[in-house]
Amino acid sequence: MPAKLSVNLNAVAMLRNRRDLPWPSVADLGRIALKAGAHGLTVHPRPDQRHIRFSDLPVLRALIDDEFPSAEFNIEGYPSEDFLQLCEKTEPEQVTLVPDDPSQATSDHGFDFRAQGDMLKPIVARLKAGGMRVSLFADGDGDGEAVKLAKATGADRIELYTGPYGGCYDAPEKAKVMLDLLGRTADAAHAEGLGVNAGHDLTVANLPALARRLPHLAEVSIGHGLTADALEFGMAETVRRFRRACGEQV
Q: How far apart are CA 153 and CA 181, in angstroms?
């Protein structure tokens, strides 16, 4: 089954926030994406609200509940107490925990499960008790032992950090090496019974090879590349292009 596409709306929100105006509308662009067949929406509400604002969350929750009840809401972020309470209030279908400092421009590494596994266990349990699926951001470096430690936290899935792979857009041989490492990590996760998501710098060009190498890939969360393409092709057609890149017949 092809990986499902979750559209990350952070870049849309960042563009909106350049002015004290309500456009582009995060909800309206999310609606267009879901109408075009996206499986869900992803947001990363950072403490400084530099892109997604806390006030966007109930609006997007209502959009999915009222108009697209089969879609999923995925909220990602560092597991501070404020973030956990935000998730418990919004009740997304999935929470993706990331290890990055709130001041970072974007997520750029996975958890160190050897050092942070014990910290994550009660957090994962708390979110799952609230009915949320939990995914943990993980490096795609082929480390099978780290995958076992991720499984030990009680998480449902890992999300492979695909930034190094996406960064090889002009280096095809290096891309093959990065893809092999991602594949080995995904294989280890599948063997442990963990679901596998992926995200960061994925594009229409590099998704097909990833989908072929990771046949059990459950979901891809894509924002920057998808939003860039939407400026050229429009949101609806861009969603269809990315769905086709994941292997869907659209």
A: 22
| Residue 3 token pair | 């990986």
Catalytic residue among 44, 72, 159, 219: 44
Q: Considering its fold, how many domains does the chain have in total?
A: 1
Domain enclosing residue 151, as ranges: 4-245
Annotated catalytic residue, options 51, 72, 76, 219? 76
Altogether, the residues listed in the chain come to a count of 250
* Within-domain flag for 250: no
CATH classification of the domain holding 115: 3.20.20.70
Based on the residue annotation, tell me whether 109 is a catalytic residue of this protein.
Answer: no
Looking at the domain assignment, is residue 216 inside a domain? yes
Nearest to 30 by CA among 6, 55, 66: 6
C-alpha 81 chain-centroid distance? 21
Whole-prediction pTM value? Answer: 0.96
User: Choosing from 39, 51, 159, 200, which is the catalytic residue?
Assistant: 200
Tell me the average confidence (pLDDT) per consecutive run of 10 residues in the chain, 250 residues long. Answer: 97 96 97 98 96 98 98 97 98 96 74 97 98 98 96 98 95 96 98 97 98 98 98 98 96
> Which residue's entry shows tokens 């092999």?
180
Q: Does residue 77 fall inside a structural domain?
A: yes
Structure tokens at 245: 């890149």
Residue 168 identity: C
